[in-house]
Give the backbone structure.
Amino acid sequence: MSELGPNKFDPHRAITVDLPAGHVRVALACRVLLPAQALVTMCSAAGEAATVALGRAVGEAMGERLKVRFATGAEAVGDPRRVVRGAPFGVVVEHLAGELALAGLGALSAERWGKALALVVDRSPVADEAIGDVLLCGVLAGALATAAGADAAVVPVAREGHRSRFLVLRDGAVEGVLASLEAGTPWSQVVAALNGAIA
């Protein structure tokens, strides 16, 4: 452990299976395993608003686990989200990636495009349909808000094969970004415009 929380994500004993009780646990909390396609079907039937709410609930649980792991040092008195915000960017991304992997939602990485932040999810079993990206937006936004107090929106901007790319935005930028994407502006140009606005 460093003074800014854990250095690396440790999956050791993160998932336990109690066959006699019929329980699967992640960090001591019960989980239910179900086929990814069943989750996508349920989200499609529920609609976008319910899918975002479901994703946020999943992400908030991830964010709580991040806060617990990071708020372990003496400096963590007070708001543990401050510790997460003060930790090295790569370490926070690694822990968030570990949480996403434990949930079976894909492999997460992050890209910095100037001052813009993109989160990239590879090989997600729910991303074959657009509603899967909606679910992932909710998960990522919920995790960031809970772990770091980052009240940011997560917007899907591109899907390339098995890779989905999301921008993390302040609420004030969301409408403009969505309008540009709907008008057919390539996401790289949207990012360039964002960097111009941020600078």
About this structure: The chain has seven helices and seven strands. The chain has one domain: 15-198.
